[in-house]
Amino acid sequence: MKKGSVFNPFKAIRFLFQKPKTLCYPFEPKEPAKRYRGFHLNDWDACTGCGNCADICPNEAIEMVEIAEIKPEPGRKNERPKLDYGRCCFCGLCVDICPPGCLSLSGDYFHIHFDTDTFTFIPKNEKSDGEHFLAPPDYSILKASLSHRKKDFPGFSTDLDYALFEPERVPMPQVEPEKRKLSFIEQVLGYSEEEAIKEAERCLECQLCEEACPAHLKISDYVRAIRMRDPEESLRKIFEDNPIPSICGRICMKHCEDACSLAIRGEALSIRWLKRFAADSVRDYKKVLEQKPAPPSGKKLAVVGAGPSGLSVAYFSALKGHHVTVFDSLPGGGGMIRVGPPLYRLPIEAIDKDVNYIASLGVEFRFNTTIGKDILFEDLLNRFDAVFLGIGTTVSRSTRVKNAEKCILALDFLERNKIGERVKPGRKIVVIGGGNVAMDVAREAIRLQYMNYPGEEIQTSAVSLEDWDIMPASREEIEEAKEEGVRFHPAWGPKEVVLDENGDIKGLLCMKVKRVFDEQGRFSPSFYEDEEMFLEADMIIEAIGQAPDFSFIPKELFENLKFTPRRKVQVDEFGMTSIPGVFAGGDIVNINLDAVTAIADARAASEGIDRRISPKAPLPTSL
Amino acid sequence: MRELELYFGPQHMGMVGNFSITLKVEGDRVVEAVSNPGYLHRGFEKLMEYRTWIQNFPIVCRMNVVEPDSMEMIYAMGVEKLAKLEVPERAHYIRSIYLELARVGSHLFGLWAYSNMLGFDTVAQWAMYHRDLILDLFEELTGGRVYHIYIWPGGVRRDFPKGFKDKIVTTLHSIGGCVPDYNNTFFENRMFYKRTEGIGKISQKEAMELGAVGQVLRATGMKHDIRKTEPYAAYDKVPWDVPTRENGDACSRVLVIRDEMIESVHMIFKLLDNMPEGPVYNRVPNPLKWTIPKGDAWVRIESSRGELGLYLVSDGGDKPYRAHFRTPSYPHGLIILEKLLENASIADVGNIMISLYVVAPEIDR
Amino acid sequence: MINRLKQELESTFREISVAVPGENGITVVASPVQILTILRFLKDRGYDHLAMISCVDWIKEDSLELVYLVSAYLTGDNEYTGREKITVTLKTRIPRKEPEFPTAIPVFENAEPYEREIHELFGIHFTGHPRLIPLFLEREYEIPPFRKDFDTREYVKEVFDKIPFVENKE
Prior knowledge:
- The structure holds three protein chains of three kinds.
- Chain A is of the alpha/beta class.
- Chain A is built from 21 helices and 20 strands.
- In chain B, helix 3 (68-83) packs antiparallel against helix 4.
- The radius of gyration of chain B is 21 Å and the shape is globular.
- Chain C is built from four helices and seven strands; from the N terminus they run H-E-E-H-E-E-E-E-H-E-H.
- A five-stranded mixed sheet of chain C has the order 1-2-5-4-3, covered by helices on one side. Chain C has a two-stranded parallel sheet with strand order 6-7.
- The longest helix of chain C has 11 residues, at 2-12.
- The interface between A and B is large, with 45 and 41 residues.
């Protein structure tokens, strides 16, 4: 660097005549950039109250407070984040981890007030708080107070590519449709250990799922145990609330996954498959669980039906020390689960694994015993201290159209295929119904057709009253049925079964559905009688619903049994029916009609049974 | 003559940052100097042991006010080395551009401090204005002007917004267009040479003994730069040169800073031309529970003042077990400053201190 | 170059363990009496830049670990020989109760502030250090603050919660 002349610095005098670069804030406001990190905004409609933002804040500046105006639902808490701006460092980590993406930072950075309490507040946004977020017409920055300009300056918001949680789940290996439609092998292959650990790592432990689960399983605890490579601890946590993990791990309706935070903008955590992983990785439940029942109380409990509710009541009551006897008319445990879901969804070995463990706790199972025929119901009431009815819905309903007696009923079809002799299918099968049972029937039918008529032309169709948008079967079942080749005809109702001259089925005459539910939401279908369709078939299966069979209850007692307006057995909060000493649970009580709600009913009932019959229990006050 | 004890203390108009030196003076000459750090000790290294790996990011950048980006970079590199994470290619380029912009901003800050100390207020205001233009660029890219929280393990936090490349080019051209003015007013000014030549002279051997790094070393003639000896990010992908000077006094140090700024601007242009497309972030596992296997790592980068290093120890948990930062102002401010201040005149105390580019928050952490 | 250094170290000193975890560093674990000799050995081989002295508190194993990080400057003629990449990490363990260690100032003159800091924050006394006075902190602490059994929340409660709030007098 050489030294310049002495006069060089004077060349800078020309800057004296240029406009100064100083910004006269606040008279010349400076617009913040698009990604500026300022004060928080929260969209209350999308916020689920999960509390992940409070978990990740490095300065513990966020606190979840209860808001009285919001009604809590299962899966959505009524809490909202409250921020302390004395601690917040505006890092934006809470925005990056927010699963619904409702929290964002605005471009506002200016707040002056005498009262220090205004620096901790619950952020909203312009949808719920127009007063603070939309500037009045005479707004000027000299009157600045909280958050006037937030609407115009979006600020730092969330982006799914850069979010801190993983929106995609580890895919579950399954058998692909071309192979699986040819046999009854189990469709889902199960996670390996590495896949299960990777999937369990996704969980943010916000515990929204635990409230949505009807049985309130400790989901975040058992997922964490899987992540720590301890499936035995995971199994112990599951068994605190759910004695049939092998069954539930395959067929549960997964209310928890619908409530999972990750499902809002990604794919939910595979809670059901992780439960199955925990159940499958432990070979011998008894050695791992080491559960010791309480000392025998000397009281006896009879359970009618070895379905999910019956098995759960047996499990909980046996742990409390009562002697339980379970009666079932089938040759093994499981109830409707044993004969309903097909082998490719729920193999018999999985059911037996759970049932055998419950039997090893001291529960006595009497299979092939029908109450009402082999043992009378009054005998049960006399010989046992309490009776639990978990009879389920065992009788298929019929459409009762002309010649309907030629059709096969769904439950008979499924039962024979699973534990009896396989039905020889027709070449063209029509299944009436749109629920999960109808999907099971259709997929079994198409497998039987492929197995019996390889290489020939076969067809299975499903006809349902409901159109696509209100079809009650789950999305997965419908998609998988379509992949296997089942043809769907939604919004058609059965009119008449057409017979040929020999009296065999020729086909089904259908009419177009106008409407399924009436204005009050009750089931009352109406049709366009003249719009008809004829479906060729040589076998028709009716899968339109099931009903319970109360024929074993003698008439005098049956008159005392109260029902709810929706034709379910009425029970109090502890599961007792209007007949003293008789408890009920499962499909005859709840409207969800799945296994996990049955377990929840059984839990309440076992509590009520214990209070009623335990020698140390206080006298029952509500009857 | 009697000795007097003076406090060139934390509240002083010539002091940059909260740092104090106790001077024993005799007349106009300093006999002995003792530096007193500790006014900004916030205990970061202990705080970091109580937060998980991702929660530490907003804290780490606050260690150094002038150039927070190098702290983020070194922590991200340390975590990536321990956890064996891969960073995508485009993220390396973005990180290099970002660090070079931070280097220019930090050198402009140093120029402000130095010219203020010498009395050249005009140049100081220009330097601050140009640094403000660079802070506007950062605001556009990351959302914050000073504390960016942009680099984290796995890549960077967001991609370039639309039109950002052109904005960088325009801003740098407007800064570069002022270089002749800077030259005229400051770097070629005879008063500047009169005040800084021969002040605070240190020989190369002495610098190596005392552990000097950065400009202090490069002003004595050694081409020691971590970006060349241990290349990280995208520094080995573009050709560039390490500027040095010979004399080792305050004048050479400041001229080295000037040359580095110009070199950085050229490097940014080259990096912008060569930048590939692609993703910028490899997702890390669940941030609330991510555990890193046991081990330790030592990483270092070249920040604007010298060699910045981090020794990170993990015991297999979800929080760091020990994080120890080796900052370049540590030897400069605590050993070299005391040596150089012997036999200096009082008017030159600030001169020497800021030419060594001592930044107080870095010493105390 | 790394392997040559590894062989030299292993042949000269007994009972040390040398590992090469990556391409840029060597880790040497030695006993406390050998540290100064190894440091001199490294300095003679051209590793003349002491980057940092650090300390880790392994409370479960009841020992403190001192870590010396040494690397190399460029040689005088500004040639990149490849030695500048290498960092030698030298570790040793000393017991936690009343720890003492000889100072490294005779070998590396710039070790002085690092040792002062470790003395203040971890409590290790360095014998032979000319100026072992507090560097950052201004109070006396029973347990040195960066040790793992120093509870920061308790300290905050004791010292700062006793200060009463300033009331708003309107």
